[in-house]
Design brief:
- The protein has 134 residues and is an alpha/beta fold.
- Helices cover 19% and strands 34% of the residues.
- It contains three helices and seven strands.
- The chain has a seven-stranded mixed sheet with strand order 1-2-3-4-5-6-7, with helices on both faces.
Amino acid sequence: MSPEGAGTLRFVKVEGLGNDFLLVDVRGADLEQLAGSLGPRAALLCDRRRGVGGDGLLLVGDGGNPTEQATMVVINADGSRPQMCGNGLRCVALWLARNGEPSRLVVGTDAGPRSCVVTDDGDTAEVEIDMGPA
């Protein structure tokens, strides 16, 4: 299912420190509706033999308020929805910075807003994120 309602799903395969994800940029669409419809399909999509393979899905939606450039929803390979994923957030921040957002940005998560700083030389990148209190 695509954000436009067609039968396809556009995604990018991303990796951060050994975790790999299917990143789906759904800005402009209903993020919660898509999270609900993709959650049950996560196991098949993330299956390394029958699907694309990955540790989970990263859905990137519009920011929830004026201070956020985007919102991230994580869906694990088993379909569960954690509040946060550090390596996933690093991938989302780099994706956003490489697609028009500033290198210093705030991404909303189910654990609250997280500040990110991207240093990108085009071939490699460093992404510093705020994980919140330990």
